Amino acid sequence: xxxxxxxxxxxxxxxxxxxxxxxxxxxxxxxxxxxxxxxxxxxxxxxxxxxxxxxxxxxxxxxxxxxxxxxxxxxxxxxxxxxxxxxxxxxxxxxxxxxxxxxxxxxxxxxxxxxxxxxxxxxxxxxxxxxxxxxxxxxxxxxxxxxxxxxxxxxxxxxxxxxxxxxxxxxxxxxxxxxxxxxxxxxxxxxxxxxxxxxxxxxxxxxxxxxxxxxxxxxxxxxxxxxxxxxxxxxxxxxxxxxxxx
Length: 246
Hints:
Blueprint: E1 4-8, H1 11-33, E2 36-40, H2 47-54, E3 64-68, E4 70-72, H3 83-90, E5 100-102, H4 110-122, E6 128-131, E7 154-158, H5 161-169, E8 182-186, H6 188-192, E9 196-201, H7 207-215, E10 233-238
Parallel strand pairs: 1-10, 2-3, 2-6, 3-5, 6-9, 9-10
Antiparallel strand pairs: 4-8, 7-8
């Protein structure tokens, strides 16, 4: 399977399809290897996908190892916008105990945290990565112009204005000034090492980014367009997010 696009009528249907696809990949990895290593995305665009994934009660979560994509630097886990908090409440606390999960500690020394996570993920080849696309076309927190060539699994990134405004507009922060300007992000080369990628992108506000990433030449200026080079990636869209595609 190469890069494919799956079109749904609405966000709920999109979440059902993408959540089922993620579950299918996890089950196959468990059957083949006795363990599944996964990456989960966060943000409002992933609500439906995660909820659907949680309905698959036949997954042996005790054999699943989870990583996640990004976290703000300096933001405590108690903050509403913390992605650690998001995953703890919306996933980790909702399933039986995982074999292991490795969350990005945004309050740790960034260089040491990138190195720690890099060693861990190198020992856990990823079977399934669940990702989204930002309004600026970012993949994880790799804002344009993104680094397509770093050899590091996790990197410190500067968040651009469009990325920070998206986080504010989604209601995660009280003011723009509250949105951190730096984060630790999984790198694009590391994401692309995943055997399968499930990319869930609902909502009309993502339509321009989807069009740029799907129809324009692959470029560091439209980072998520690099997904088109992957051997097993499905981009799940609804009518709104696909509305500008020609």
